[in-house]
Amino acid sequence: MSAQVGIIMGSQSDLKIMKQAAEVLTELGVEYDLTIVSAHRTPHRMVEYAESAKSKGLKVIIAGAGGAAHLPGMVASLTTLPVIGVPVKSSNSIDGWDSVLSILQMPGGVPVATVALDGAKNAGILAAQIIGSHDDTIGDNLSKYKEELKRKVEDSINQL
Question: Which of 5, 15, 46, 107 is most solvent-facing, going by the fewest CB within 10 Å?
Answer without folding.
Answer: 107
